[in-house]
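Researcher: Next entry in the queue.
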Amino acid sequence: TDDQRGMAHFMEHICFLGSTRRAELQSRGVGMTSNALTDFQQTVYHLSVGSEHLFDGLAVLAEVGFAPEFRMDRIEKERSAVLSEAQMVNDVTYRLQTQIIGASHRENVIHTRFPIGLESQIERWTESELRSFHSEWYVPRNATLWVVGDVFEDRVVQEVERAFGGLPGASVRGTDEDPWRRD
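Model: Structure for this entry, 183 residues:
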């Protein structure tokens, strides 16, 4: 909505960088090649682990996507990081890109909802508002999991069910519901 511009990007920071499981995994030297991004269409969490750490990597993604801690220290740290990022990207090239995208998408909401968000909104979002946004949008029916690598499908299904199976609405088999019918 108009008062949530950039909230998905802020959530990306809180969920991914605030993940205790991710920090623990990386402290063991596993999953060091990881990243996250938010664009107009999606938030992506990328974690690269060896096949021997498949479950650990999936458990990280389950926490990041569906069970973040929402610690106030992390929220404030990521609020500062996102505000800094917003200032850093606000150069001539970015402003030109926003004008081009804005002109190309006048007929829809994209022209006002850039992923970086509005500083005035980022500064004021409360933990409660962030939790509410997360509980509405960060649900299994809105997620797609890709596992690529040196693993057999049967093992992947077993480990995905183990890592994500306890989540309400989680299904390895998918759903016929169309998540794009919501604003």
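Model: The radius of gyration is 18 Å.
Researcher: Noted, moving on.
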